[in-house]
């Protein structure tokens, strides 16, 4: 009976600890998003977004259907402006190698590449580019990180609530087991 009580307490404790443990790496992350979009023309338009966010760089590589080019071009022109813009054939290239804004962005039909060296830019400029990358990711892949984060938080909350219920049940079982043990001792 003592083994049963000890086991129940251990299980409940493990569930609580597991539910509350959440580790997140802040030094480096790499995310890839891929989405297939069915169109009315009975063919599939593939989009792929790869984002690397390390201690040193923020990089976005994306491929997408050419129908998204105009929207992406508009957002890039709006956020990056026409300064440092070069146009070579069908390719738009933003390059800036100044002290506080060292970055490169290249857009051609169906492809986008953007890279920023974090050591060579101000925090304000990095935040601007980081927000741009998030918006581009949503436009290209349809993935909304805020929605994904909310879903993850809701799942974590459900797991925590489940663990609390399991702990309450384990405590109640422990209480009953102690009562049964006391009754057994009296008999």
Sum this structure up briefly:
The protein has helices at 2-20, 69-80, 123-141, 145-186; strands at residues 29-38, 44-53, 57-63, 85-88, 91-97, 101-108, 111-121.
Structural summary, described in words:
It is a single chain. The chain has helices spanning 2-20, 69-80, 123-141, 145-186; strands spanning 29-38, 44-53, 57-63, 85-88, 91-97, 101-108, 111-121. The radius of gyration is 27 Å and the shape is elongated. It has 187 residues and is an alpha+beta fold. Helix 1 (2-20) packs antiparallel against helix 4. The protein has 2 domains: 2-22 and 148-186; 45-143, Double Stranded RNA Binding Domain (2-Layer Sandwich), CATH 3.30.160. The chain has a 7-stranded antiparallel beta sheet, with helices on one face. Strand 6 and strand 7 (111-121) form a beta hairpin. It is built from 4 helices and 7 strands; from the N terminus they run αβββαββββαα.
What is the typical, i.e. mean, pLDDT? 79
Q: How many β-strand runs? A: 7
Stretches where pLDDT is under 50 for at least 5 consecutive residues are 20-27, 32-44
Strand content: 25-35%
The appropriate CATH architecture of the largest domain is 2-Layer Sandwich
Keywords:
187 residues; alpha+beta; Double Stranded RNA Binding Domain; 2 domains; 7-stranded antiparallel beta sheet; 4 helices; elongated
How is the topology of this model organized?
Elements: H1 2-20, E1 29-38, E2 44-53, E3 57-63, H2 69-80, E4 85-88, E5 91-97, E6 101-108, E7 111-121, H3 123-141, H4 145-186
Antiparallel strand pairs: 1-2, 2-3, 3-7, 4-5, 5-6, 6-7
